[in-house]
């Protein structure tokens, strides 16, 4: 079976239309509601023995292949990994501290905590159809009376793509765990009823000496807690092994066990600190390193390592001034530590970026293109601030703190959490039904939620800034506060996973897609969640525009903005019709009051429909120049009254016309050697290119098509007061114009328009001629000698 053809994506929606998807999601919602209404108690009895066997079989059947070894072959159905899940399903989480809850057994779960013990290795939950797995990790546990149940754990850090040995380390056999206010899930979808845990903070691993373990008798016999089964050094060795295998979650668990056995082992604490750094759990890394620094006496080597880890942690948290000071202290302890000297220099660069908004855009683009991530840069907030905007959902927005010029850099933001195509090692399908905005989500979106939760757990300060984002009317947007826990995941942060899912759904950004589109895994796509950029409200004709390079986002003003004026972005593609925009926007709000939508409404439905019909014809495969000329006139006529110059549908028709004219011009010149007619066609192509640019909002000052002298002092042919939303489309149009001028042997014009292209690219990217050459290499190569000559002349002038 050819799976690629079966995958429902935005490009291939034959299998599952949007309507079908919504119907599917509605059915799933009904099923979830029905499930919730079933009586939860009493829980059915399950034989521990049969559950343990079932767990082993599951793990062996296909779990082993997926968990322990390389990725599945993807060729046979049995091996093929399909994950499915729901986002926005009403989930529980506990906010009652463990010591204020009463213990229960599985027979009598209700508003209490459950004390239980892991009695089988973790496995991947499967639906009735074996090849479909849900995204949870499953454990078989027994309570003190020997009753067994399956725990389905969602959102637990490090489990989404962990393999067997690491999961075994995260959930060691015989661990005793307390689950705050667990709830049973009936056997409607899964093979067994089970206990579902949505919030990782509801699970508390109990360690020796915990009060809750006093006087506990296990009817199946006492077994030592896992931590007691190895010496500190043995745990350290296991931790090192996981570290070498890059299984950092497993490694931190082993190092934590080693430290429970012997808290004074500084080497283990330094190793755990390093492991936290790898996981970007910077605050925990700093805590371990600071513990080491608090010891006296301390060897120079340990002091230097601990200081260096503190510096790296502060750097990772974006505290560059602190990090620089710490790197300097490292050099005092060990003047030969070159990494510290390099650290200082990196801090200086980051501080400069942060203060001045000056970036090495060339390197950023190159890294983003190569790695799909933003590399090492700092955040920047320019002349904009968060402000109260009561008339918008969530009540906030972004406004200018002073007058802003066209092209000014407003924001550079690293993601709070991101997922790019390159983040996924496994193949297979992923289906997620989002109950919040009734859409099918892809794996990227789900992974962003997982990583968001993880980041919240790893840093309470980050958790607070995330919880301030808008999650819909049911969640107040007042600042919240979470405490820092001493041991990760062991004290209540009270993570409400449904709220986090709602926040992610309303605020996530995607590359190459409208904010709400589904992206195919085959596209080079990045999905990411940002904090500051999430406060921008929407307009279909905004004064700001965003770009994602890897997972780094930058935002520029596309026109001048007055002090105090709101700065907006668009949440969807820039060229969609009123009807498409309205449909997409309902995910966020019911009615768009921007100027473009007002014009479209005033323009009337019949004009809009006619416009779409013309556009469809113009997009037809066999369309000729003659028909396109007519379509361009007709589509212009669908606009009435005071409709502004921004008309992407018109631009689209002129774009097609310009490229067809250019093709025909070439055929005429080369084939029929008809120079004069060729020249006319190129002139018309240039004029169509001008119309296409103007309908995207650009203002052309110099519309000459003949007799432009070769003169460096000529001003640009375009106005510098507006950056078009779709820069790449405009750049391509300018290259068409340059090509047509070349055919007309108007070399003055080619240079003038090349300068315009370089200006626009630089205004958008900030990367100058060097980045221009990198970004447009594929086109410049096609231009051959012309590009070489023009760029050499421009560089010299
Ligand atoms: C990404 S948030 C933007 C920031 C949000 N206003 C806040 O206070 O956090 C998206 C939400 O803002 C609101 N919003 C954004 N643009 C809007 C617009 N043009 N009209 C109405 N509501 C808008 C909607 O409620 C939407 O779900």
Would you kindly provide a written description of the structure presented here, covering whatever features stand out?
A hairpin with a 5-residue loop joins strand 4 (123-126) and strand 5 (132-143). The protein is built from 25 helices and 23 strands. It is 44% helix and 13% strand. Bound molecules: S-adenosylmethionine. S-adenosylmethionine (SAM) is lined by residues 392-397, 469-470, 477, 506-507, 534-535, 537-538, 588-589, 592.
Structure characteristics:
single chain; 797 residues; alpha+beta; Beta-clip-like; twelve-stranded mixed beta sheet; four-stranded antiparallel beta sheet; 25 helices; 23 strands; globular; disordered N terminus; binds S-adenosylmethionine
Write the layout of secondary structure elements.
Blueprint (H helix, E strand, L loop, with lengths): L17 H20 L10 H21 L13 E6 L15 E2 L8 E6 L4 E4 L5 E12 L4 E6 L10 H7 L5 E5 L2 E3 L8 E4 L5 E3 L26 H13 L3 H14 L4 H14 L2 H12 L6 H17 L3 H14 L4 H19 L4 H11 L8 E2 L2 E5 L7 E5 L8 E5 L3 E4 L8 E6 L4 E3 L1 H16 L1 H8 L29 H11 L1 E2 L15 E4 L7 E2 L5 E6 L2 E6 L8 E4 L8 H8 L9 H9 L1 H14 L6 H13 L10 H24 L3 H20 L32 H17 L3 H19 L2 H8 L1 H7 L1 H12 L1
Parallel strand pairs: 1-5, 1-16, 2-3, 6-9, 20-23
Antiparallel strand pairs: 3-5, 3-7, 4-5, 5-6, 7-10, 8-9, 11-14, 12-13, 13-23, 14-22, 15-19, 16-17, 18-19, 21-22
Helix pairs in contact: 3-5, 4-5, 5-6, 6-7, 6-8, 7-8, 8-9, 9-10, 11-23, 12-13, 12-14, 17-18, 17-19, 18-19, 19-20, 19-21, 20-21, 21-22, 22-23, 22-25
The protein binds S-adenosylmethionine.
């Amino acid at each position: 079976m050819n799976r690629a053809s079966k995958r429902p994506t935005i490009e291939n929606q034959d299998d599952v239309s949007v309507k079908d998807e919504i119907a599917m999601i509605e059915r799933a919602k009904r099923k979830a509601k029905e499930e919730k209404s079933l009586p939860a108690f009493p829980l059915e009895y399950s034989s521990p023995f049969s559950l343990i066997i079932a767990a082993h079989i599951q793990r062996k059947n296909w779990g082993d292949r997926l968990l322990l070894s390389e990725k599945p072959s993807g060729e046979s159905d049995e091996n093929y990994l399909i994950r499915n899940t729901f986002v926005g399903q009403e989930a529980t989480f506990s906010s009652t501290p463990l010591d204020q809850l009463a213990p229960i057994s599985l027979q009598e779960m209700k508003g209490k905590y459950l004390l239980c013990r892991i009695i089988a290795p973790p496995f991947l939950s499967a639906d009735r159809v074996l090849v479909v797995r849900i995204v949870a990790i499953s454990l078989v546990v027994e309570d003190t009376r020997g009753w067994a149940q399956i725990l389905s754990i969602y959102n637990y850090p490090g489990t989404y793509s962990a393999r067997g040995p690491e999961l075994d380390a995260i959930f060691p056999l015989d661990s005793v765990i307390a689950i705050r206010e667990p709830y049973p899930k009936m056997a409607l979808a899964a093979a067994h009823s089970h206990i579902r845990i949505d919030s990782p903070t509801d699970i508390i691993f109990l360690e020796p000496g915990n009060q809750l373990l006093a006087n506990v008798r296990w009817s199946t016999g006492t077994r030592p807690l896992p931590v007691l089964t190895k010496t500190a050094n043995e745990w350290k060795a296991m931790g090192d092994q996981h570290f070498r295998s890059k299984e950092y979650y497993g490694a931190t668990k082993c190092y934590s066990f080693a430290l429970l056995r012997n808290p004074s082992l500084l080497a283990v604490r330094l190793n755990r600190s390093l492991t936290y750094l790898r996981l970007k759990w910077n605050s925990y890394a700093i805590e371990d390193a600071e513990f080491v620094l608090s010891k006296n006496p301390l060897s120079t080597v340990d002091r230097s390592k601990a200081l260096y880890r503190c510096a790296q942690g502060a750097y990772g948290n974006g505290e560059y001034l602190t990090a620089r000071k710490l790197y300097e202290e490292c050099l005092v302890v060990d003047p030969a530590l070159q990494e510290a000297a390099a650290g200082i220099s990196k801090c200086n660069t980051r501080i400069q970026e942060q203060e001045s908004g000056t970036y090495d855009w060339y390197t950023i683009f190159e890294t983003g293109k190569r790695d799909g991530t933003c590399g090492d840069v700092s955040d920047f907030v320019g002349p904009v601030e968060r402000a109260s905007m009561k008339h918008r959902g969530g009540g906030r927005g972004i406004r200018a703190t002073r007058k802003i010029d066209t092209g000014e850099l407003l924001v550079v933001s690293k993601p709070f959490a991101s997922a790019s195509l390159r983040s996924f090692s496994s193949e297979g399908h992923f289906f997620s039904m989002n109950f919040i905005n009734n859409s099918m989500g892809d794996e990227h979106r789900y992974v962003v939620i997982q990583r968001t939760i993880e980041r919240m757990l790893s840093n309470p300060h980050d958790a607070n800034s995330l919880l301030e984002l808008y999650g819909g009317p049911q969640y107040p947007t007042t600042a919240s506060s979470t405490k820092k826990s001493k041991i990760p995941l062991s004290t209540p942060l009270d993570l409400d996973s449904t709220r986090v899912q709602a926040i992610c759904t309303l605020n996530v950004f995607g590359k190459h897609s409208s904010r709400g589109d589904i992206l195919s895994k085959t596209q080079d796509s990045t999905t990411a969640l940002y904090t500051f950029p999430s406060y921008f409200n929407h307009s279909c004709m905004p004064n700001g525009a965003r770009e994602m390079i890897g997972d780094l986002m930058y935002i520029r003003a596309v026109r001048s903005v007055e002090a105090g004026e709101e700065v907006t972005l668009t949440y969807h593609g820039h060229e969609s019709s009123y009807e498409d925009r309205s449909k997409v926007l309902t995910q966020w709000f019911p009615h768009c009051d921007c100027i473009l939508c007002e014009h479209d409404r005033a323009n009337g439905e019949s004009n809009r429909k006619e416009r779409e019909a013309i556009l469809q014809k113009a997009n037809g495969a066999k369309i000729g120049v003659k028909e396109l000329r007519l379509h361009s006139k007709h589509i212009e006529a669908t606009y009435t009254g005071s409709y502004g110059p921004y008309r992407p549908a018109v631009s689209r028709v002129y774009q097609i016309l310009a490229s067809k004219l250019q093709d025909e011009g070439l055929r005429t010149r080369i084939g029929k050697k008809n120079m004069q007619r060729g020249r006319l066609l190129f002139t018309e192509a240039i004029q169509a290119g001008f119309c296409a640019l103007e309908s995207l909002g650009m203002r052309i000052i110099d519309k000459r098509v003949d007799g432009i002298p070769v003169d460096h002092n000529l001003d640009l042919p375009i106005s510098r007061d507006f950056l078009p939303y779709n820069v790449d489309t405009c750049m391509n149009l300018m290259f068409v114009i340059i090509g047509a001028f070349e055919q007309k042997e108007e070399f003055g014009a080619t240079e003038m328009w090349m300068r315009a292209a370089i200006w626009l690219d630089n205004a958008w990217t900030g990367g100058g001629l060097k980045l221009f050459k990198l970004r447009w290499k594929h086109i410049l190569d096609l231009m051959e000698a012309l590009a070489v000559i023009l760029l050499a002349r421009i560089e010299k002038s």
